[in-house]
Amino acid sequence: MTWHEGAPAQAHGGLPDKRRAILAGARTVFAHGGYTRASVETIAAEAGVSTRTIYNHFHGKLPLFQAVITESTAEVADAQVALIDTHLREVTDLEADLIELGQALATPMTGHAKHFAEHFALVRHLLADTEHLPQDTIDAWRKAGPERVIAALAGHLQRLVDRGLLHIPDPHQAAAQFIMLLVHGVAPFHHGLGITREADIHEIVTSGVRTFLHGYLPA
């Protein structure tokens, strides 16, 4: 099944609040157990609707998962791009501004925001279930989420290069490296393997930013 074929069906006489309840319930179920372990029956129970109602709004579990990951990815990417724009629009202290950006991007990953926590749990399960999902589902997530955020960050890095504040041959690659430094550093907290103290996150982000700048500050 292709991404287009797996797209969510239009509601047939159903109310928007029912569709919202289905998507919210499905996000919780998929975030908890992943795509392969989830069932339409469990999602229906979580959403407080019948399985027939789910099939009236979506063709089955796969298009429902695709709708959930599409919506969740767009919402989180919107928030992350907004953070990047806010913190890098007017850079006055390069290291401090990058640390503030890193802190802002990393904080939702610690689980303080339920929706962000569910989204990153969804992504972990999506990557674990790649052999059970169509490749275009994975590709669509990458394009709507990571690639969009990296492109936004790369644009700001290029402007810093133009100002002579950084020396970066490939801003897109550098943006991906910046994100990966944050992801690898904060991942243990996100997975519940560490103490999610603000000071710990700040220390991890500061170390990552300084590593990044060590490679890209002008000689």
TrEMBL record:
Residues 16-76 form the HTH tetR-type domain. InterPro entries: DNA-bd_HTH_TetR-type_CS, Homeodomain-like_sf, HTH-type_TetR-like_transc_reg, HTH_TetR, TetR_C_Proteobacteria. Coiled coil: none annotated. This is AcrR family transcriptional regulator. It comes from the Bacteria. GO terms for biological process: negative regulation of DNA-templated transcription. Keywords: DNA-binding, Transcription, Transcription regulation. Pfam families: TetR_C_7, TetR_N. GO terms for molecular function: DNA-binding transcription factor activity; transcription cis-regulatory region binding. It comes from Lipingzhangella halophila. Residues 39-58 bind DNA.
